[in-house]
Amino acid sequence: MAQHRQAVSAIADTLGEPEQGPSAAVLRLLDPALPRPQLLAQLHSCGFADAEAAAEVLEPVRGRLPPIWLEEAIASPNPDRALNRFRDLSVHASTGLETMLHEDRQLLTILAALFGTSERLSRHLLTHPETWPNLLSGPGDPQPDPVEWQGRLPARLAGCDYEAALREMRHFQSEEILRIGFHDVAGNLPYQEVSAQLGRLAEACLAEAVNRVAAELENRAARPDAELTILVLGSCGAREMRYGSDLELVFLYQHNGVTASGIEYQDWFGRLAQRLISALGALLEEGRLYNVDTRLRPSGSQGLLVTTYQAFADYHKQTAAPWERMALLRARPAFVLPGAGAPSDFGNRLETIAYQTPPNEDSLRADLLHLRQRIEKERAGDPGESLHLRFSPGGLTDLEFIASWGQLRQGERDPALRTTHPPTALQRMADRGELSPAVLDDYRFLQRAGLRLRLLRDQHDDRLQAADRSPLARSLGLSEAQLSDELSERMARVRAEFLQRLG
After folding, report:
1. The domain over range 119-356 is classified in CATH as 3.30.460.10
2. CA 365, CA 109: separation in Å to the nearest integer?
3. Hey, which residues does 145 pair with through a beta bridge?
4. In terms of Cα–Cα distance, which of 24, 82, 13 is closest to 54?
5. pTM of the full predicted structure?
6. HSE of 140, CA atoms in CB hemisphere, 13 A
7. What residue spans in the chain does CATH classification 1.20.120.330 cover?
8. Within its chain, how far is the Cα of 443 from the centroid?
């Protein structure tokens, strides 16, 4: 029998690929009578890194594995992962989901590509089965109308008590991250739009959480008459939110005073901030919303959790280190809890604080170079073991420092440089003839690669390990050699631009 089957297979091989339907390679993998040695050889030729492990996964699920799925998995950046995740999915799948997997070709294609591209989203889907019903109606609009989308979360939370609202927010966040990830994998969203939507989602959750926490606190103690402003900094402040990013927040209030219940405003707002951090970061059955980092407040982790507008302005004028001024360039108000009076002009004051009297250039250069060297030493890791797309020499941090250097030196005189978005600042520097336009393309490439790397893995890091190079290259439409060449050339050019200014 084996000899006859091999003879038939050899004849079939001469016929080429069928014009429609699964390829001959896929049909062989799904053939339950294919001898083990030939199965292993076929898996290896189809790009599976561990043919033995793939065979162990494939054999028990052959009967439920749609050929289209396997075709897309083979074409994905990581076929091994896609096959493993199909096995996991088949274990938990409902009858409706199994029917969808065999009948909805478009969604099946996207799902197979997602499982073969993103460990983060694969795990997200498998650990949030409440999102599966949404798959039956498709992944949703890649770019929903902003006004209509903005009303979705408040509508979902209407009528919910405090605990129910926190749980429903997590459901909403899970569904939205899955929607964004689906369209990211499918190529329906440019990386800038992925970051923009992740940022809008974070700010929507922040706003609803603040309102809920404030209402709960107000039921127990009268609310201050002063305004509260919550600043976002870091990646969210820069409008470059990534998968798994923390929220870097600073809490500021309008002025001191005492509530009708006798509580100092600072104490009341401090309680609100602590409860908000807990509400966002608590790991419930439905998952976690966001980890909150408050170390960018005045005096860092040793400073007060909340401070007045005036104390914040005085600190940055008199005491703040240069790196704190640089961090402030990415700060913007994300939420304002109104006080009793008219709204303040703190948004405008914030820009004045950030771009007030330019620092001494020699001191600024020395401080920024020292800080960059420290980041490189402490966070980039061993260059022989991995490449950090953000912290290694020539990484995104070099470009962010170049943007900050231009903003701190010229921002007082050039309003076009006053932006929280580093690429916009770099574009202005290029328009002024102070920067090579090629560096802007380097920024876009590194940012896209970093965002895709986070999608590939379930890790909040931009460190490129050896095992990540092939999947990342495939996900970017490059060979592994091309990816290495691109990274080497681009990061060398970025480092040269950095040293020209700060080295």
Report:
1. yes
2. 51
3. none
4. 82
5. 0.88
6. 18
7. 358-503
8. 16
Residue span(s) of the chain under CATH 3.30.460.10 come to: 119-356
Length of the chain as a residue count: 503
Residue with tokens 């006798």: 262
Tokens representing residue 238 in the block: 């820069």
- Our CA dihedral for 349, 351, 356, 358, rounded to 10 degrees, sits at 170
- SS3 category, 460: coil
The continuous run of DSSP H or E covering 81 comes out as helix 79-92
> Rounded to whole angstroms, how far apart are CA atoms 160 and 145?
25
∠ CA 90-93-98, nearest 5°, is: 85
Q: Which two tokens stand for residue 411?
A: 């921002």
Residue 355 tokens, joined: 């771009």
Instruction: Return the HEC string of 272-300.
Output: HHHHHHHHHHCCECCECCCCEECCCCCCH
Q: What share of the chain is helix, strand, coil (3-state, %, to 5)?
A: 65, 5, 30
CA-wise closest residue to 170 among 280, 86, 89, 88: 280
Sign, Cα dihedral of 371, 373, 376, 382: negative
- Strands 247-253, 292-293: pairing kind: parallel
* Type of residue found at 168: E
Q: How many helices (DSSP H) and strands (DSSP E) are in the chain?
A: 25, 7
Distance CA 51, CA 459 (A): 25
Q: What is the CATH code for 358-503?
A: 1.20.120.330
Q: Is 492 helix (H, G, I), strand (E, B) or coil?
A: helix
DSSP string over 133-171:
HHHHT-S--SS--HHHHHTHHHHHHTT--HHHHHHHHHH
Phi, psi (degrees; rounded to nearest 5) at 32 = -65, -15
> What is the chain's pLDDT, residue by residue, as a tens digit (503 residues)?
878 877 787 777 666 555 566 788 898 999 988 999 999 999 999 999 999 999 999 988 888 888 888 988 898 889 999 999 888 887 766 666 677 667 777 777 777 878 888 888 888 777 776 776 666 666 789 999 989 999 999 999 999 999 999 999 999 998 899 899 888 888 889 999 999 999 999 999 999 999 999 999 998 888 999 999 999 999 999 999 999 999 999 999 999 999 999 999 999 999 999 999 999 999 988 889 999 999 999 988 889 999 999 999 999 988 888 788 899 999 999 999 998 877 888 988 999 999 987 888 888 899 999 999 999 999 998 888 899 999 999 999 999 999 999 999 999 999 999 999 999 999 999 999 999 999 999 999 999 999 999 988 878 889 999 989 999 998 899 999 999 999 999 999 999 999 999 98
